[in-house]
């Protein structure tokens, strides 16, 4: 299955129902097929700048455990919007400037080493241990390294910092990480596109 704009629209439905307090999100009916296999997934919210010329990250959280699409998207539409600790929770008045991306994760493979992946093709998930023996993990979705213009080494270093590693990063430490590579199916929908899509759905509905 490919990620679709309808998946993103469902995330908007859930977020708006929560923020406007129109009723339990569980009552929102998914219009996409739930009978396919379960997927690990991420939901990403971005917000247009005041000038409207660029989008900035507003929240991104997901799960590497396969989930049924309707319940997974419902959960992470809200978790990424309200509980990403890098940002304050999204408010209702921000919604018209938002866009939503849904990434369905596929093709997980254990890499031979920290360089065994391809920028622009693979997402990377690393596991490492801090000096006090604590296990940490960190991930970037497939598009991140390419969007940022990072090399493979720069990506790994950013992942280590994102995961909370604060000491000097040496090549020996990079080699000690365990890397899993994966791919994704991604769909993106702006709020303006969402309103058009829902208006069309109401016009053609039963």
Question: How would you concisely characterize the structure shown here?
Answer:
This protein is an alpha+beta fold.
Quaternary form: single chain
Largest sheet strand order: 2-1-3-6-4-5
Based on Cα principal axes, name the global outline.
Answer: globular
Could you estimate the helical fraction of the residues in percent? 25-40%
Structural class assignment: alpha+beta
- Poorly predicted spans: none
Termini separation: 26 Å
Helix-strand sequence: HEEHEEEHHHEH
- Strand portion: 25-35%
Radius of gyration over C-alpha positions, nearest whole angstrom: 18 Å
Mean pLDDT: 92
| Number of helical stretches of at least 4 residues | 6
């Amino acid at each position: 299955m490919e990620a679709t704009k309808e998946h993103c629209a469902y995330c908007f439905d859930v977020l708006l129902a929560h923020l406007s307090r129109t009723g339990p999100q569980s009552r929102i009916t998914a219009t996409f097929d739930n009978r396919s296999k379960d997927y690990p997934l991420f939901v990403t919210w971005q917000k247009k700048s005041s000038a409207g010329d660029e989008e900035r990250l507003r929240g991104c959280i997901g799960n590497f455990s396969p989930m049924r699409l309707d319940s997974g998207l419902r959960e992470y539409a809200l978790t990424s919007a309200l509980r990403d600790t890098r940002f304050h929770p999204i408010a209702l008045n921000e919604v018209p400037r938002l866009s939503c991306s849904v990434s369905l994760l596929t093709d997980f493979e254990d890499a031979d080493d920290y360089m065994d992946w391809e920028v622009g093709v693979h997402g990377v998930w690393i596991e490492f241990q801090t000096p006090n023996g604590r296990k940490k993990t960190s991930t970037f979705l497939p598009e991140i390294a390419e969007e940022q213009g990072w090399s493979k080494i720069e990506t790994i270093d950013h992942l280590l910092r994102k995961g909370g590693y604060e000491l000097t990063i040496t090549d020996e430490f990079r080699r000690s990480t365990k890397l899993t590579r994966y791919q994704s199916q991604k769909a993106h929908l702006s709020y303006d596109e969402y309103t058009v899509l829902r208006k069309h759905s109401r016009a053609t509905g039963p």
